[in-house]
Design brief:
Largest sheet: 7 strands, mixed
Shape: globular
Strand order of the largest sheet: 7-6-5-8-9-11-10
Strand content: 25-35%
Number of helices: 13
Structural class: alpha+beta
Length: 419
């Protein structure tokens, strides 16, 4: 059993009473693992049939979520293809509470590494507008990579402080998730850093930061909108009291639901969420796309002939990059999919273009598992097909791009994603 901080144990003993011993015993068992089928690419039923990892039942709160066991869950070919996301089971509980409807504007305010953002995207089904924001630039890169891998076509990935974002999106979003940075008490079994860095001072510091984030979220939530606040901690200062304090300051909100998942009660680690609804009021008007020129898609349309048969809308060049943008949003925010770049007058496809394709949308170069793993490691392989760009596929699912040159498939899988 891991060694837990005395101050933490004393507090939990006071809160749990007769349940304390059961809570304590939960730390003698390994952390529960989970994966979530990415329904933008595959149904949960189809995923069960071809899952490359051992599945041991479905989660209670997310219909596409599964309990899993084993190591290397994120090192498989189908993970690289974006068919599933490795996610702690309890962490899947908050997003369904948003009750997302088609066409809504949704914000994931503290989004990295992207588990909840990609889960939100599944519920949006390619409609509406998702803004996935992360203030830390290094974590922003991981978030962006996961959004791309999962084939999300309707997202803008931003790297802003909540305050800066609030200045731009006043009364704009229909749904907001605040998965707040916290002291991480619920992750003690999984993350050594959370255990090592924990202190009462850290709890209070996190609570102060969370209160500021909630104020920014309030500014951005449209009248009649829904706010889901979540943490992976047990600390009342960051959970129940945080919500109580917010409601004292904002009488326009109603508390719909509040729940704490404890590891001795559920099959998962610690998590907390609260669901708040804002009274009817102002909802900001749509933004508008700008600078869409009729010839912006010329190079892309020439490239795609015989390579892909997917249709993309709102194609625009920003500098030398080509994007397919979401409706009703300013072009400079690059909300949508990067299709590629114009280099020396020719179109060169981006990895995000391959990642967002469904099996029937690519003239794919199908490979077996051995060659797929070779490709994912950044290696070339022999190929007798005609010269040119092709999407490498495994079981029909796109992995990324290669360029065939004189019988050799040159590897264009991004270096940062190689396994």
């Amino acid at each position: 059993m891991i060694s837990l901080p005395e101050e933490f144990l004393e507090r939990m003993k006071g809160e749990l009473g007769a349940e304390y011993e059961d809570f304590l015993q939960s730390y003698a068992t390994p952390a529960v693992k989970g994966v979530r089928a990415n329904t933008l690419k595959i149904t949960p039923e189809e995923f069960e049939k071809i899952a490359p990892v051992a599945l041991v039942g479905k989660t209670d709160w997310e219909e596409s979520g599964f309990y899993a066991k084993g190591d290397g869950l994120g090192k498989t070919v189908l993970h690289a293809a974006g068919l599933y996301y490795v996610q702690e089971p309890s962490a899947m509980c908050a997003v369904p509470e948003l009750e997302i409807k088609r066409g809504e504007r949704v914000l994931d305010l503290c989004a990295a590494p992207g588990g909840k953002s990609t889960q939100i995207a599944q519920y949006m089904k390619g409609t509406g507008m998702l803004v996935a924001n992360e203030i830390d630039f290094k974590r922003y890169g991981v978030l962006k990579s996961n959004i791309e891998r999962c084939g999300v076509r309707n997202a803008a990935v931003t790297c802003q402080s909540p305050e800066n974002l609030a200045a731009y999106y006043k009364n704009y979003f229909d749904k907001i998730l605040v998965d707040a940075p916290c002291s991480g008490e619920g992750m003690f079994k999984k993350e050594e850093a959370a255990l090592r860095e924990w202190s009462l001072k850290t709890v209070l510091s996190c609570a102060a930061r969370q209160a500021k984030i909630l104020e920014s979220a309030n500014t951005m939530l449209a009248g009649g909108g829904r706010l889901v606040y979540s943490t992976c901690t047990f600390a009342p200062e960051e959970d129940e009291r945080q919500i109580e304090n917010f409601l004292k300051l904002h009488s326009e909100y109603t508390l719909i639901k509040m729940k704490k998942l404890l590891p001795h009660r559920v099959k998962g680690e610690g998590h907390f969420f609260a669901v708040l609804e804002k009274a009817a009021g102002e909802r900001a008007a749509d933004f508008s796309l700008k600078d869409i020129k009729p010839n912006d898609k010329k190079e892309f349309e020439e490239f795609k002939q015989g390579v892909i048969n997917a249709e993309f809308k709102n194609i625009v060049k920003l500098g030398e990059s080509v994007y397919s943008l979401v409706d009703n949003f300013p072009a400079e925010l690059k909300a949508g999919v990067k299709l590629g770049e114009i280099k020396n007058g020719r179109f060169e496809p981006a990895h995000s273009l391959a990642a967002c394709l469904n099996p029937n949308e690519a003239n794919g170069l199908e490979v077996n598992e051995e060659t797929a793993l070779k490709y994912l490691r950044g290696l070339t392989f022999d190929c007798a097909d005609a010269n040119g760009w092709r999407v490498v596929t495994y079981k029909g699912y796109p992995l990324g791009w290669c360029k065939i040159v004189n019988g050799v498939a040159k590897n264009h899988f991004p270096k940062g994603l190689r396994i």
